[in-house]
């Protein structure tokens, strides 16, 4: 177990999409620094393996199977944090998918899934955590957007629309939660090594994205460090937006 870090150690953090990629890396990073972690995702076997590994290393971690498209399951995840650890300090709405394709291919099921997970899943995370944070008069909601939430490119219209929506929702939230002493952060990463490109079903698009990731993607702990930076600021400092890319990434 690493030494105690002010602003991280002891903070109760709920992470959606903690079974791989950015969420998993953040769970490890924060748990090693003494934050109790509540892990949510659908692949519960992976979550339980991660929770056991973190617990064996001396951290506090619990895993709960959670589909973020079901508000009741997201509430159960957040309520579990409060029951087990007494409060929720950080809600990291991270679960997402990126099945990119040209609009003309009419992958309507994939559009629906991106809207359900990337937008509604974030809203459900807000709905589940906000009442606790209002009562506590403290908390921090961190929502994951993307460079794609700032820029749209061919094949990425729906994904960009969902990630743009995350930014808009989070800025609205920021303005509304002032009376409750709640902080909000949007994190917009560029290409980061994870399982995200595997959600692309169109072979030509998948190949192009794979080539791009192989060339430029950076490790997922880059994301974990941005979460740690935002949450470890003094209580009166609210880091509202972080946009970062691999140094090699052009757009
Ligand atoms: N990697 C990048 O380059 C990059 C760049 C910008 C933004 N992002 C964003 O970062 C976030 C994390 O993605 P990642 O890169 O770490 O990809 P990843 O490795 O594919 O992880 C995605 C996570 O989301 C979870 N998830 C998907 N659907 C879910 C659902 N219905 N309910 C609960 N969990 C669900 C997955 O868990 P289960 O399948 O087990 O449910 C998994 O843990 C996403 O919002 C993504 O858009 C990533």
Architecture overview:
- The chain has seven helices and seven strands.
- Strand 1, helix 1 (21-32) and strand 2 form a beta-alpha-beta unit.
- The chain is an alpha/beta fold.
Number of strands: 7
- Beta-strand content: 5-15%
Whole-angstrom Rg? 17 Å
**SS summary, helix count:** 7
List keywords for this structure.
251 residues; alpha/beta; binds NADP nicotinamide-adenine-dinucleotide phosphate
Short synopsis of the structure:
It is built from 7 helices and 7 strands, in the order βαβαβαβαβαβααβ. With 251 residues, it is an alpha/beta fold.
Topology:
Layout lengths: L12 E4 L4 H12 L4 E5 L2 H13 L4 E5 L5 H15 L4 E4 L14 H29 L2 E6 L12 H20 L5 E8 L13 H14 L4 H11 L9 E4 L7
Parallel strand pairs: 1-2, 1-4, 2-3, 4-5, 5-6, 6-7
Helix pairs in contact: 1-7, 3-4, 4-5
NADP nicotinamide-adenine-dinucleotide phosphate (NAP) binds next to helix 1.
């Amino acid at each position: 177990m690493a030494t105690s870090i002010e602003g991280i150690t002891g903070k109760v953090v709920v992470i959606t999409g903690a079974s791989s990629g950015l969420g998993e890396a953040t769970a490890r990073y924060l748990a090693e620094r003494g934050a109790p972690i509540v892990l949510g995702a659908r692949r519960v076997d992976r979550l339980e393996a991660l929770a056991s590994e973190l617990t064996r290393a001396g951290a506090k971690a619990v895993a709960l199977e959670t589909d973020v498209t079901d508000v009741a399951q997201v509430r159960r995840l957040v309520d579990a944090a409060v029951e087990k650890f007494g409060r929720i300090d950080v809600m990291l709405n991270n679960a997402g998918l990126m099945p990119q394709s040209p609009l003309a291919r009419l992958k309507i099921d994939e559009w629906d899934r991106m809207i359900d997970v990337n937008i509604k899943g974030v809203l459900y995370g807000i709905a589940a955590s906000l009442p606790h944070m209002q009562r506590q008069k403290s908390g921090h909601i961190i929502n994951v957007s993307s460079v794609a939430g700032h820029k749209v490119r061919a094949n990425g219209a729906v994904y960009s629309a969902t990630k743009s929506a995350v930014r808009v929702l989070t800025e609205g939230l920021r303005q509304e939660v002032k009376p409750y002493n709640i902080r909000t952060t949007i994190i917009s990463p560029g290409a980061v090594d994870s399982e995200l490109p595997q959600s692309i079903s169109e072979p030509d698009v998948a190949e192009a994205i794979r080539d791009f990731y192989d060339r430029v993607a950076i490790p997922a702990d880059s994301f974990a460090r941005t979460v740690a930076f935002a949450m470890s600021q003094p209580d009166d400092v609210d880091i509202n937006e972080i946009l970062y890319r691999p140094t090699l990434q052009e757009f």
